[in-house]
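User: Please fill in residues for this 550-position structure.
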């Protein structure tokens, strides 16, 4: 079975302002594909109720007549350029135009959908999906229609304008593949909500000349944008695809046309279109990363508020250049977000001044604690990090300390990933897990240290259990923790999963009533009191010495 990539290029506005409701919409046949596939998809798309509720589709006969008069419209495998789309839209009296392309991609079972809509040649939406046969596209059309209808009212008037010229090719890169991925990258940039994206058929140098001439007051026809209304973007996306052996290096930079400076630049390697699709999503996230600096409580609160207000999602970095106290922070789960905290100029300490956890991480969000960041509990009866369905990541140089209710709690199927850093000097005064408590979710430890923590009950270092938790250890150290009243000085497992493989140390400096290294609740119980170093594997699902138990 032949597989396809389906790329809906853009919806273009070819008229001025006004209300969106019931404007004329031209849906061009999708280029590429085989036989009548492109016209069939366009025809089915024009019947979608979500579209007809807000648009009046232009009759297919009028569109096809206009296409026959446009030499630039390619019914084969080529992409239809924005100039041609705009020309056809004007001919048929459409304020909005939808165009797209179908391309065979070897044997890959991959469907890439970029759903874009442009007011004044502005692109505003995009999707990526998978499919097997061409017949499956029919089931994708309702979602495409909903996205276009929902995006029609998006206000991008205050966003920086970004021109997207064609990709530059070097070293024998596949131009068709690179152009397709560039369209997907543009769609992700639109989805980020950081830019208003404007496609261009001209090179970067020509776009720079357009901007310069307009800025200088020269409005001769040859200097106006070939598409759009004579108002040039201030930024341009410069992309070069360079073949390097079996890989293609995709270099993307955002250039300020006014100053000539590069405002952002990232690179991604890919091997084939499927790998490239994933690379474009990551590349867009890195290009649109939002950076904030905080040195005191007010500036930190402002940075958190800005992250919470943003509904577009992506990457956010808050660089701390001072130490301060902070009330409890809860991130808003209104989009997929990864928030990184890092220190600058030395160790920066955030001390909890609230009555709840210092940080709460809901589902859909990832909080990364990077080098130079210390979270101090201020001896409050609250966890430092409450992972409520989201993900917490600790890296080298980060520290969690000084809580009177333990370091980290994982609930709601969340996850905690520890590749470095230190969790020390915390006390679970009223319960379990002095360092880490996994009630429902997962804890993966490949590095770092959990030491000097105390639980009144079970699991001085780590407690996993009572719902559906798991702990996998492949590195790091758990040492000198104490379960003061009960079991598992280093690790306590209550019927859930614990596996230690390939590294890490849980030493005998941990203390408890029983199982000072590891205690696994059950009948029979599984206990280890002597140290478990890198050469000792442990498995809570296996009894006796076969599981590493004494």
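Assistant: Residues filled in for all 550 positions:
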């Amino acid at each position: 079975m032949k597989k396809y990539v389906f790329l809906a290029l853009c919806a273009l506005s070819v008229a001025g302002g006004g209300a969106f409701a019931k404007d004329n919409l031209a849906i061009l046949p999708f280029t590429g594909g085989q036989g009548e596939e492109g016209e069939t998809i366009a025809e089915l798309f024009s019947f979608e109720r979500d579209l007809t509720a807000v648009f009046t589709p232009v009759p297919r006969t009028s569109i096809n007549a206009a296409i026959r008069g446009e030499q630039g419209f390619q019914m084969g495998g080529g992409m239809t350029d924005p100039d041609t789309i705009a020309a056809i839209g004007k001919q048929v009296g459409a304020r909005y135009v939808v165009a797209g392309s179908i391309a065979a991609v070897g044997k890959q079972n991959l469907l890439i959908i970029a759903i874009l809509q442009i007011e004044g040649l502005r692109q505003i939406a995009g999707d990526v999906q998978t499919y097997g046969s061409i017949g499956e596209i029919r089931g994708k059309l309702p979602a495409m229609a909903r996205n276009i209808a929902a995006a029609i009212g998006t206000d991008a008037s205050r966003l920086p304008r970004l021109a997207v010229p064609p990709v530059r090719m070097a070293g024998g890169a596949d131009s068709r593949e690179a152009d397709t991925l560039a369209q997907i990258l543009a769609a992700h940039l639109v989805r980020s909500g950081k830019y208003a994206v404007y496609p261009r058929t001209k090179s970067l140098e020509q776009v720079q000349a357009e901007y310069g001439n307009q800025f200088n007051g020269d409005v001769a026809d040859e200097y106006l944008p070939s598409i759009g209304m004579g108002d040039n973007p201030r930024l341009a996306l410069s992309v070069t695809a360079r073949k390097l052996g079996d890989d293609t290096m995709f270099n993307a930079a955002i250039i300020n046309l006014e100053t000539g400076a590069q405002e952002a630049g990232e690179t991604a390697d890919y091997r084939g279109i499927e790998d490239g699709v994933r690379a474009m999503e990551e590349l867009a996230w890195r290009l649109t990363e939002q950076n904030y600096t905080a040195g005191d409580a007010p500036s930190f609160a402002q940075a958190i508020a800005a992250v919470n207000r943003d509904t577009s999602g992506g990457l956010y970095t808050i660089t701390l250049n001072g130490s301060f106290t902070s009330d409890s922070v809860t991130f808003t789960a209104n989009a997929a977000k990864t928030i990184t905290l890092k220190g600058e100029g030395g160790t920066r300490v955030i001390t909890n001044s609230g009555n709840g956890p210092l940080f709460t991480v809901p589902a859909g969000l990832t909080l990364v604690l990077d080098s130079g960041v210390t979270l101090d509990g201020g001896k409050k009866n609250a966890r430092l990090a409450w992972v409520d369905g989201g993900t917490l990541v600790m890296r080298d140089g980060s520290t969690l300390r000084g809580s009177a209710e333990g370091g980290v709690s994982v609930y709601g199927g969340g996850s905690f990933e520890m590749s470095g850093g230190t969790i020390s000097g915390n006390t679970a005064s009223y319960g379990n897990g002095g360092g880490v408590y996994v009630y429902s979710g997962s804890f993966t430890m490949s590095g770092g240290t959990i030491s000097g923590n105390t639980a009144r009950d079970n699991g001085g270092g780590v407690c996993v259990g009572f719902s559906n938790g798991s702990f996998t250890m492949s590195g790091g150290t758990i040492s000198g923790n104490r379960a003061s009243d009960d079991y598992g000085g280093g690790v306590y497992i209550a019927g859930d999963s614990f596996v230690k493989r390939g590294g890490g140390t849980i030493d005998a400096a941990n203390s408890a009533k029983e199982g000072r290294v590891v205690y696994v609740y059950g009948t029979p119980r599984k206990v280890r009191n002597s140290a478990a170093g890198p050469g000792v594997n442990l498995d809570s699902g296996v009894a006796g010495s076969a599981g590493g138990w004494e």
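For context: The first strand starts at residue 4 and ends at 13.
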